[in-house]
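Throughout our pipeline, every protein is held as a single compact record rather than as scattered files. Nothing more is needed to write down the fold, since each code stands for a local backbone conformation. The record that follows is passed on verbatim for readers who wish to inspect the format.
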Amino acid sequence: MPWPTTRRLIGTKIQRLDGVEKATGRAKYAFDIKRPRMLFAKVIRSPHAHATIKSIDTAAAEKVAGYRALYQIKKAGASVFFAGDEILAIAADTEEHLEDCVRAVRIEYTVQPHAVREDDALRSKTNTTGGPGGNNINAAGDFSTDNFENAFNGLAATHQADYGVGVISHQCLESHGLVAEWDAKQENLTVWASTQAVPNTAEGLRVHFKLKPGQVKCITNYMGGGFGSKFGPDIQGIAAAELARTTRQAVKLMLDRAEEVTVGGIRPSAYGNVKIGATKEGQIRAYEVECHGTGGISRGATVSFAILPYVYGPAIPNIKRRHRVARTNIQIARAMRAPNHPQNSILTELAIDDLAARLNINPMTLRLANLPPNDQAEAQANPRTFVGQRATIYRTEIEIIRKMCGWDRAWHAPGQGGKGVVKTGLGMALHTWGGGGRGPNPTRVTINQNGTVVAQSSSQDLGTAQRTVTAIIVAEILGLQPTDITVNLGDSSFGPSTPSGGSTTCPGTSPAILKAAETARDAFLTSLAGRLNVQRNQLSIAPGVVVNMANNQRIPFRQACGMLNVASIQGNGDWPTQKELQGNAKLREEWTTRLSNQGVGGVQIAEVKVDTETGVVKCSRFWAVQDCGLIINKLACESQVAGGVIMGLNYALYEECIYDRATGRQVNPNMEFYKLAGIADMPSIKVHMHDMPERGVIGIGEPPTIATAAAVGNAIFNATGVRVPIAPYTPERVLAALANRRAGNG
């Protein structure tokens, strides 16, 4: 079941099939759902970063006009560990009644010490975040290669400096939440959710309510972004379903914008002291980092520890790394587009450019000299793996982007960005990601007697054009146009599917779609052969027609469908089970290295203009080269890369969650002070897809956002000759770095 070698649609640029629906408002998101007699609900949250609940008094709220029910999440005596921690949820007839109910609730607290900034958490002598341990520090990792104490001896140049990046929010355009409704017998629950994992969300609710399989249905027809933060019902989803069961009415509970920022999830911070050294020829021989960061009250690492230094690690013989997690009284970290990789990039790529300046070497040349080598064992075992050809891929991509941006002409030594107030510079960075597919992702393709074709899967479309991808593959196999295919997605009753995380959706679903389409096609032609009294192998499909090679007859597809003696023909497709893959090397190779694959790299270059009087950084042009496998929709791929760059530019220049040390609250929980770029802030973004179709489909949703912030940081250094060590590179930080140099400290 290989991918078609001659491709009519796959790999071309095709507009999203649901673009008009989204632009006109006909597309209905969870936020848009309206059910008969629907109630509105809201979660009441702690205003304190750390406290014990003394008492909860809801008597006055229960007397407010429009009050319908409450669901208690925490009881008196429980602790809260961040400002925004959930205590109870209330449902009311209208949003106005709901606000009155919320204001009437009285909760008393005993306020406890808190730590909302990393340095405070590291100094804390007590545990303010709950869980095990006597303080707020979690020892996340220590590693050293042998004999590291001699690693820097005899090197021509070493550089040591601090780098870092702060906490940011996911800022999903559609907030977290869902609408919940029980049937008349209170036995079956339906939710319309904003989720990246339709079956998982249904399963989470089923487990909570102790229901049987099939008693919970989750529907996500359209979804307004998640970036890794929406993999289950969450507490607000459970609360909505509980309130719906209590009231026997549908309940809508969606976070407002302030809640979305303060409880919807964060990308952790990372700060590190990095030491790096190389020979005079530019061979990096040693890298050492001691780093820390916070993911709020969560205990997980805030960097991808095993791959620090980032990208170049396999080429560096001497490595030492130490990581500590500073647990703070802010919301919990959630996966965010390429979790922890942007932090790794900043802790590596900025040091690379600083070392290049010490060596007086072009930073592109330094990178070319230190690319991770091709893994020969992997290359021999499977020539289509990324690690078996990574150096070759990176070298090719660097050459492509060198020509795209005119690097040889435009790059200059750091600090030579022009004579005026505004300085111009170029900076680059590399990245890598997995992006492999897996099952189960059962897909069904139905060819109806009236000529219509329907494809269905429970997988969700986060806004990544999954609906269009499905239609393209089915249309390719059936000789139709994507607009001829009706695609139904995001309904848990369609069966299981893998969550949309880790850039796995397209490589996970595409082979299953292909198999379903081919199975439907073969069943269709077999049935038609009987009606035409010919052999099955005498029929084939060409664009828009069925070809009868017995008499060279070309039957229009719709007419051929009308000749069927059944109402519909169905084809099902899904991945082999893990047991089947593990026990069959040929099958495993087909599905995981030919139909789909994993492992990609990319190179990005930013051009910035830095106003040295105001500190304002403007990214004027940006170039991105991204390798991938077989492209299904080139327009969607390019859009993904551009979108990743846009998110990375926000990470580089604007976004940061800011917390008040005294109150423990976030002081910018809104779109006014949580800064995001506007259209006028965006550069020209040029994207080149370095496609490798022989590798199969590989996901690229996450990698394009990884290297952007580091590339921008290096461009600022190239423009001004001054390193701004901490992202986002705000005017305040740029001016501080410039002043520090004038004072002779940099």
